[in-house]
Amino acid sequence: MSHIVIVEDERQLAELERDYLKAAGYEVTLFDRGDTAQQWLETHEPDLLVLDLMLPGLDGLELCRNLRRRSTVPIIMTTARVEEVDRLIGLEIGADDYLCKPFSLRELVARVKVILRRTHPEAAPPVSLNPILNEALAMVELGSHSVELTQVEVRLLALLQNHPRRIFSRDQIIDHIYEDRRIVSDRTVDSHIKKLRRKLQQLSEDHDFIHSVYGAGYRYHPRA
Q1: N or C: which end of the chain has fewer CB within 10 A?
Q2: The CATH number of the domain covering residues in 3-123
């Protein structure tokens, strides 16, 4: 399991970053000061560092410079000011990527994955031929691409993927994805299926993962 260190003094943001990265399968350590993070990094080597620019104790710029003198650990710098990104790039301080606040937490996870695939190819999981559903992040991934899902789409895809090739009628789908037992028409189910299909096609145009079975319902058809 890859180990990510987050150095961020905004507690709420740091905890959200931690939760999203943990949901994506990473081990996460938090620091809210630059000096305490630097002290820890002198004896530890994480797989990636998410480093805020403005920090108490020691700012992110100085911490990045100090770290680069002895380590090649990948670094994603974060800052609240757009103009700082251009300045940081111009300084060539050695960061691998930059994010300007406020940023999407899913975007952070996506960038972490891209960098780790490049820097730790031996630790990368085998490439799946089928979409991988991440229910915690409400997204589905295939290779280096991902799309966001609604909660209904998450439950729908989970149902179909957990029972590949099994045919589900519209009534069965309604029973599984609507916990409050609301009254839903067949057309609503068809609409959800249509939208989910479109999103899966963004990940793979050459394979239709959800098949319609005339007069019966729908089934999930994975690649062999």
Answers
A1: C
A2: 3.40.50.2300
Those residues with Cβ within 8 angstroms of residue 182's Cβ, 6 or more apart along the chain or in another chain: none
Low-confidence winner among 3-17, 70-84, 127-141, 171-185 (lowest mean pLDDT): 171-185
Residue pLDDT, tens place only, 91-148: 577 788 888 888 888 889 889 988 998 887 765 555 678 888 888 888 898 877 889 9
Give which of 69, 111, 117 is closest to 93, Cα–Cα: 69
DSSP string, 33-57: -HHHHHHHHTT---SEEEEESS-SS
219: part of which helix (H) or strand (E)?
A: strand 217-220
Question: What's the CA gap between 145 and 162, in Å, rounded?
Answer: 21
Query: Quick one: tokens of 161?
Result: 């993927």
The H-or-E segment that residue 146 falls in is: strand 145-148
Nearest to 174 by CA among 161, 188, 191: 188
Domain 132-220 classified CATH 3.10.180.10? no
Start-end of CATH 1.10.10.10 domains in the chain:
132-220
**Which residue spans of the chain are classified as CATH 3.40.50.2300?**
3-123
Other Cβ atoms less than 10 A from the Cβ of 168: the count is: 21
